[in-house]
UniProtKB/TrEMBL annotation:
Annotated stretches, region: Disordered: 1-49
E.C. no: 3.1.1.-
Top-rank taxon, per record: Archaea
A Pfam cross-reference name: Erythro_esteras
Record bears the keyword Hydrolase: yes
One example GO MF annotation: hydrolase activity
Database matches in InterPro entries: Emycin_Estase, Hydrolase/PRTase-associated
Keywords noted in UniProt: Hydrolase
Top enzyme category: hydrolase
Protein name, per record: Erythromycin esterase family protein
Length: 444
């Protein structure tokens, strides 16, 4: 069995020290943009592995949805993927329809009535997780990067997550107003846009059947009028409208599955991640550059199953489906942290708050990572898995921090950790010595 000191030495050998962000994304953006226009493409001096540059999709995880250091490091990594590696798509764990506001902002798109500020674009998401200064500053940087570039060289932003079946009706309706206004008054469009999912099972099934039929009708209309619609808009706008029809179908099926049982359950989460993977692959097909940087929770980006101790722990994750489709073209990066504070929704109160955790659990991977002096660092798990000093240690599932949107500070110590086969789940792991809460936009 490997001793702690032997494990620590091996971890050091397979880790890349990552400089702490010395400034926010916005503070680096002007200099970074100038270097890009000069053709050097350099954003900062942080070292990142070539395997990430060569990927088709890089999954960027997070141990919590509320750790500021994680968000800042991910923003910087996205800058590098965009400026140095030619990535032209950023995907978020956010609804596909609502995220159109982010895309319109970073492209300053007059056709899509672009929001005039990153804050207003983030407000469209209605998600506290992303309404932070780190994401705001990243969007600002992307907008500056896009300025003056032709449309085919600009970075696009897409949401890969699901929503209520009616939510995609808003951007789809805006498209129909441009190309075929009569469609917005059709029975099919009204059936989608006016839908709420009933609590009564029989009524819910009837409603979802009606929405599914309406979505099929809208899909047929978009397909049948492809040439005319593209003349009145653009091929890209048509493809996005076609995708929104598909998102309605996804949301309808997801609503049907997740209401089959009371409360969260494995089938509901598995369906969600199946559709998230489908949407990420759609974004990759549309990408005009070298790949997609995909921002989501560790539980979604990792290969295999969730392994997080929840009722859906055995559900197949988005990352497993992307890996099955892309092989080495998919590179997931997990995140862990030693101790500190983060934002989450309290399990009992239901309110958004700040929670703190102390030193990591004994014999957890987190504790071993915390013993490495050079944190923050990026651990190459592929290389580490071939090191005989780590063969025993990495040969069994290990615990790393894992907190979703909801946190129960009164739960047992095991809650707040995932137990997973690290090399099988992630290619790299970013370890942060400390977590501090994300800062909401508008906070001083």
């Amino acid at each position: 069995m490997s001793s702690p000191s032997r494990v620590r030495a091996a971890l050091v050998d397979h880790s890349l020290p990552i400089p702490r962000p010395g400034s926010d994304v916005s503070e680096r953006s002007s200099a970074g943009s100038q270097r890009q226009s000069d053709g050097t493409g350099e954003v900062d001096s942080a070292p990142y592995p070539p395997a990430l540059a060569d990927a088709e999709i890089v999954g960027l995880g997070e141990a919590t949805h509320g750790t500021r250091e994680c968000f800042r490091h991910k923003a910087r990594l996205i800058q590098w993927l965009v400026a140095d590696c030619g990535f032209r798509t950023v995907g978020f764990e956010a609804g596909a329809a609502a995220a159109t506001a982010l895309d319109a902002f970073v492209r300053a798109d007059p056709v899509d009535d672009a929001p005039d500020s990153p804050e207003s674009s983030l407000a469209e998401l209605d998600m506290w997780q992303w309404q932070t200064e780190s994401v705001r500053d990243l969007l600002t940087w992307l907008r500056r990067f896009n300025r003056g570039r032709p449309a085919e060289e600009q970075v696009r932003v897409h949401g890969v997550d699901l929503s209520a079946p009616s939510t995609p009706a808003a951007p789809l309706g805006s498209y129909f107003e441009r190309v075929d206004p009569d469609t917005t008054g059709s029975d099919a469009f009204r059936a989608v846009s006016n839908t709420t999912v009933p609590d009564d099972e029989a009524e819910r099934e009837r409603t979802l059947d009606d929405v599914a039929a309406a979505a099929a009708t809208l899909t047929d209309r978009v397909e049948a009028n492809r040439e005319a619609y593209q003349r009145r808009s653009s091929p890209e706008a048509w493809r996005r409208a076609r995708h929104f029809c598909r998102v309605i179908e996804q949301a309808t099926e997801w609503a049907r599955v997740r209401h089959q049982q009371p409360g969260p359950h494995p089938e509901g989460m598995a369906a969600r991640d199946r559709f998230m993977a489908e949407n990420a692959l759609w974004a990759l097909e549309r990408d005009s550059g070298s790949g997609v940087a995909l921002w989501a929770h560790d539980s979604h980006v990792g290969r295999g199953t969730f392994d997080d101790g929840t009722v859906w722990a055995d559900a197949t994750a988005m990352g497993e489906r992307l890996s099955a489709e892309l092989g080495d073209g998919y590179r997931p990066v997990g995140v862990d942290f030693g101790q500190g504070s983060f934002r989450a929704v309290g399990a009992e109160s239901g309110d958004l708050g700040t929670f703190s955790v102390g030193e990591p659990a004994e014999r957890s991977a987190t504790a071993a990572f915390a013993g490495v002096d050079d944190a923050p660092f990026l651990l190459d798990l592929d290389a580490a898995a071939t090191d005989e000093r780590l063969s025993d240690w990495l040969g069994e599932p290990r615990r790393t921090r894992c907190v979703g949107s909801v946190f129960d500070p009164t739960a047992d110590e095991g809650v707040g950790y995932a137990r997973t086969d690290l090399p099988a789940t992630f290619d790299y792991l970013l370890f942060l010595p400390e977590s501090t809460p994300t800062r909401a936009t508008g906070e001083p």
